[in-house]
Amino acid sequence: MSDEQSAGAVSHVQGVLLMVVITIILAVLLFMMLHIPLWPGGPPKEPPEIFAITQLNHHCEKNGGLNYDSRMTITHTGSTVFKNDDLRAEIFVNDQDSGAFISSMNAHIFIPTYHIGVERMEGPGSTGYYWYPGNQIFLDLTDGTVLPGDAVRLDVYHKEDGRILSRSERIA
User: Fold this and answer.
1) Cβ of 146: how many Cβ atoms within 10 Å?
2) The predicted structure's pLDDT at residue 117
3) Distance between CA atoms of 113 and 80, rounded to whole angstroms?
4) Is the pTM of this model over 0.85?
5) Which of 79, 66, 51 is nearest to 143 (CA)?
């Protein structure tokens, strides 16, 4: 075999290997471009509604008259069990902080704390250590906090890392 023939054969094998490697690299890059966006698509994602405001009441429980009671029912609509003492909440009325200070969603821990804007907390979601899906918490806010027609927002945060877990909005 001459030197000229062997050089040509080596060059042909190297060329095929180089083409295979380039094809694999291009395929991987194309796959990544289709599955990993290079820029965020649209506005930032809103927090999910895990703890939903399901009822806002302005009427007296005894005679049914309008007395601006400001009672709120929150229902756990998610599927994950949460330790209620790991949660804290903020309530906004017409995009303004209502001043309601809820440092724990556990009623037994909430009672002795310094709390403003919330007179009582009760319900199956707040009486044990855990808030199970489907359970409710009833908040008795300071009378007049929420008026008919107000836009009410409930933000629930994880106390340890400060991230927002749930956002619920409702018109009173």
Assistant:
1) 27
2) 83
3) 27
4) no
5) 66
